[in-house]
Structure formats: structure tokens, C-alpha cells
Amino acid sequence: MCIKQKLANNSEWMDSKKYRLADFFDQWWEIYKKAPKHYITPEQYKAVNDMRLCRTEALGVDHYACPDCAEITKVYHSCKNRFCPTCSWTDTIKWAEKIKLKMMDLPHRHVVFTLPHQLNDLIKDNGAELLNILFRSAADTLSDWMGNKYNIKPGIISVLHTFGEIKQYHVHVHMIVSWGGIHNQTKELYPIQGEYVNYSFLKDNFQRKFNQKLIEMFDRGTLYHPFSDRINFMKFIRIINQKRWIIKLEPAMEIPTQVIRYIGRYSKRACLSEYKITKIEGEFISFRYKDNKNKDINNKPIEKIERLNYRDFFPRLLQHVPLKYFRVVRYYRLYSNKASIPEQYLYTHKNDQDNPEESIGKIETLNPLICSHCEKTKIYLYTLLRKRNKTKIIIYRKRILHPDKVPNQNVA
Q1: Mind listing the pLDDT tens digit for each residue in 213-269?
Q2: How much is the CA Rg of the chain, to the nearest whole Å?
Q3: Which of 91, 181, 189, 330 could join 152 via S-S bond, C-beta 3.0 to 4.6 A?
Q4: What pTM was estimated for this model as a whole?
Q5: Does 237 share its domain with 378?
Q6: How confident is the model over 2-60, as pLDDT tens digits?
């Protein structure tokens, strides 16, 4: 078991939270994996192990010191796993700031495409193949409609989520779509006036595009399925088509404040944010969630508490670990890597007072590498690695402090 150091003072750079998901896994994971309720995949094992080691001495601790007073700061290494709640939040803010500068100076809309729950088993059995179809069908539905109706090419950012509020399996794609684009003939920036869309038309097209690719997979023999023949498969298709599939469009948002807030909320965040955990007590964990089926007098979802035993919580959470090498964030049309947007059409943050960290949430309030006494930048000393009962010190680059200013280091 690795040794974990808690945040003792401002000189140690680690997150201080009321509850940490890694602590709950530390308590019960070794017991659970001996008799799991469901098969544990290699990706799930890796996600749990990375999260448990994140920001501990097992991954390494960089030691920095003030060149004047020798005040020490410990910077704990992160695991960088996409499933880790701490790493995903930091990554989200960096990503949101970067992507903002590549977006067109147009309003954008948040759009959600949701698949029927009857498809869940097929998606789990076929993994990336069906999720790829979902990505492509959703992007094509919007871009084809905007191209035919307005003769423009939009920019689309798509983010896959497989979880609902209580972490049940709920496959949907969040999209940030430019409400306008570059006109195919004039090559000028063309904003769409108004917010009206024909929902029935979009839903029918999304359903048709997805079903067409699904049927092609069945006919090629590349679809893993429980159906005895094509007749039974087509009966299943008719059942899931009895109701129109769900597409939700939020009102248009202006650049950058609202858009960045939505990007941060729906992009690279972890399945369960640790600030939503309300209690860890013995074998049980409790977390807040929004009940979208029950609204208050202001028509906002009522907040409730879900309480689960670790034997139910672990498999429910781990089913959302991303597949290896699978891209959960994708870019289409003008926001794809192959596209080129003229600089004059891009959003520029001239006179923009908005800060993505303020829109999404701050990570740190102080720079830990600035001495709190001397206000000088601290310099690197060494990196400490501790695994089980072994301790190793690594020096990546040599920096010299005055000998009488370096405090004694007691390394176990």
C-alpha cells in the first residue's frame, strides 16, 4: 500500500477535499475485486489503480525551495487518467481556454443527442463501433441540415457521455454547435437568425442515419448481437423506432462566457465529481444528483441523494471508464483539424474580461511555486518516489542553493 500525505499547509500542493473517491476505493477495492459483480476490464483496473495513486508519493513528489529562505513546496504528480476526477478537472480548464481561441465569433448552441435505452446492450457488446456511429450520425444530422437550409458549413465539438445523473448507463452526445458558419458560396461568416428548428425533421434524420449504419453492420456480419435472424433484428429496429429519438437544443449562447462554461461542464470532466460526494460511511457512499423528472416551483430539477454499497457503486461507476485509445471529444466540419478558418472570423479575446477558470471553477488561488515570504520563484531540488517500504530520490536537473539555507531532509 502506498503512503499518502494529506495537505498539511499551503506549501504542499495537493487538493484538500472533504471526500476523495480514491479513499473509498482504498477501503473496499481489494475486497471487491476478489468477487466482483461484473467482469473487470484491463482499462477499469488501470483507471482504479491510477486514481488511487494520483498525487501520492508513489507517482513522485517534486521538491522546490525558495533560493533565499529555503521554504519547501511539495508538488505531487498526477496520474493523468481520463477517469480520475482530479486530473480531468484540471485538464478541462486548460482545454477550454485553448479551444476558445479556435472558435468562430458566432453564437453557439448546446445540443444533446440521446440514444434509446433499448440499444444499451448492443452498445456494450460492440463498444467503439456503435459509439463511432453515434458521433458521426449526430454531427451529420446537424451539418447536413444547416448546409441544405442555409448553405453554410458549421463548426461542431462533440463530447460522449455514457452516464446519467445516478451513473446509470445512458448514452448521449453533448455538442457545441456554431449557430452559423462560413457560407459555401460567398465564403463569408454567416450567422443564423432566430433559434427555430424543425425538431421532428432532425429526429427523423438522426434516427435514419444511425439505423442505416447499424443495419449495414448486421448485414456485414460485424455486429455482435443476440438475434436469431434478420427478421428478428428488423423487428427490434421497428420497436426502437416507435418513439422519436431525443434531441435537445439549448438557446443560443454568446462567445465566450456562456459557451466556455458549457464546454467545461460537459467536456472532459469525470463521471463523478468529488464535490458531489456527501458522505462516505463504512461500506456506503452517498452523492448528490439532479432528479430531472421532478421540478421545483422554479422548474428546476430537485436535488436528491443516492446512497450505494460499494458492491453496487463500483460496477455502476466503472462501466463508464473510456475504452482504450477511444476519443471521447471529437471535432467536425470547420472545427476539425483539417479545416481552416480565416483569422478574421475567429473569436479574439480583445477587451474580454472573462476568465475560463472563473466561469468553470478555480483550481488554485495561489501559485505554489512563489515563496509566500520572499515572493521569489522557487527552484527545483529533487523528486521523491516512495513505493511500499522503498524510497528513491531522483534529481532531474541540478540547481544549487546556498548550503546553509537547505533544511535537513529526513527521508525514510
Answers
A1: 999 999 999 999 999 999 999 999 999 999 889 999 999 988 656 676 666 666 666
A2: 25
A3: 181
A4: 0.84
A5: no
A6: 333 333 333 343 444 689 999 999 999 999 999 999 999 999 999 999 999 998 888 88
> Locate cell 430539477: which residue?
301
Q: Cell triple for residue 235?
A: 423487428
> How are beta strands 12-13 and 72-76 bridged, if at all?
parallel
Identify whether residues 387 and 251 lie together within a single domain. no
Q: Please provide the DSSP assignment of 9-47 as one string.
A: STTEE----S--HHHHHHHHHHHHTTS-SSPPPHHHHHH
Rounded mean pLDDT of 196-203? Answer: 93
21 and 140 both lie in a single domain = no
- The arithmetic mean of pLDDT across residues 259-284, rounded, is 80
Query: Are 72 and 93 within one domain?
Result: no
pLDDT of residue 310: 97
**Within 180-331, where are the H helices?**
199-220, 230-240, 257-266, 310-318
Domain identity same for 21 and 115: no
Domain presence at residue 389 = yes
Q: Residues 120, 242: one domain?
A: yes
Of 159-173, 310-324, 377-391, minimum mean pLDDT range: 377-391
CA distance 360 to 239: 41
Instruction: Indicate if 340 and 400 belong to the same structural domain.
Output: no
> How far is it, in rounded angstroms, from Cα 269 to Cα 174?
12
Residues 288/292/294/298 CA torsion (nearest 10 deg): 90
Query: 166, 223 in Cβ contact below 8 A?
Result: no
Domain limits at 243?
85-271+322-352
Say how many domains are in the chain: 2
Q: Are 112 and 250 within one domain? A: yes
Side-chain half-sphere CA neighbours of 130 within 13 A: 22
Residue 381 phi, psi (nearest 5): -105, -65
Q: 305 Cβ partners below 8 Å, 6+ apart?
A: 278, 286, 287, 288, 289
Residues above pLDDT 90, as percent of the chain: 55
